[in-house]
Structures are given as structure tokens and as C-alpha cells.
């Protein structure tokens, strides 16, 4: 499954266009490798996503073509959520 589609269906990011933009700006890694929106996501992959001053690290648990809101959280497991404070 494409990375941008996984992020939308799992509801980590609400819109696919936003997921594509975040990925194409180099803010997402799959298993430590920089990912594009078209990168393939498999069960067991570790995603590291940077949202402004937050970094989410999630493990991919399930892949579905579509899902209900209640089932979306079952698609991934939150490993860590880190705040990054940029003091310069």
C-alpha cells in the first residue's frame, strides 16, 4: 500500500493530499530510510513522522483498503511521541 494512502486510511493524517505533502518534504522515514508519498508500506514497518515540533513513531500492524473510524487505530501501534523544542 502507498504511504500516503496508509496515513489517510489509518487516520494518522486526515487528508491524503496533506500526507503526500508531508512525505514529499522529507518528514517521513520508513525503517530509517527517507520515504516519498508513493513508497510502499508493509506490515511490520516502522514509520517516523515529523509534524512541526512533534515526532511520531508507529509500527504498521494491519493494512486495509478502507476502514471505519473505530478500526483505524488498529492499523498501527504508537511506539513513541516526542516533542522537539527548537531553541536557537
UniProtKB/TrEMBL annotation:
SMART domains per UniProt: S4
Any one Pfam family match given in the protein's UniProt record, by short name: S4
Keyword set, alphabetical order: Protein biosynthesis, RNA-binding, rRNA-binding, tRNA-binding
GO molecular function, one term: tRNA binding
SUPFAM superfamilies named in the record: Alpha-L RNA-binding motif (SSF55174)
Listed PROSITE patterns: S4 (PS50889)
UniProt KW Repeat keyword: no
Superkingdom to which the source organism belongs: Bacteria
Domain spans labelled RNA-binding S4: 1-64
Single GO biological process annotation from the record: rescue of stalled ribosome
Record-stated family: Belongs to the RqcP family.
Subunit field text: Associates with stalled 50S ribosomal subunits. Binds to RqcH, 23S rRNA and the P-site tRNA. Does not require RqcH for association with 50S subunits.
Record function comment: Key component of the ribosome quality control system (RQC), a ribosome-associated complex that mediates the extraction of incompletely synthesized nascent chains from stalled ribosomes and their subsequent degradation. RqcH recruits Ala-charged tRNA, and with RqcP directs the elongation of stalled nascent chains on 50S ribosomal subunits, leading to non-templated C-terminal alanine extensions (Ala tail). The Ala tail promotes nascent chain degradation. RqcP is associated with the translocation-like movement of the peptidyl-tRNA from the A-site into the P-site.
Protein name in the entry: RQC P-site tRNA stabilizing factor
Amino acid at each position: 500500500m502507498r504511504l500516503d494512502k496508509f496515513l489517510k486510511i489509518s487516520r494518522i493524517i486526515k487528508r491524503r493530499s496533506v500526507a503526500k505533502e508531508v512525505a514529499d518534504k522529507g518528514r517521513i522515514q520508513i525503517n530509517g530510510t527517507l520515504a516519498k508519498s508513493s513508497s510502499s508500506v508493509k506490515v511490520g514497518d516502522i514509520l517516523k513522522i515529523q509534524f512541526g515540533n512533534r515526532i511520531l513513531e508507529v509500527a504498521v500492524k494491519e493494512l486495509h483498503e478502507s476502514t471505519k473510524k473505530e478500526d483505524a487505530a488498529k492499523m498501527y501501534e504508537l511506539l513513541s511521541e516526542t516533542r522537539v523544542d527548537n531553541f536557537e
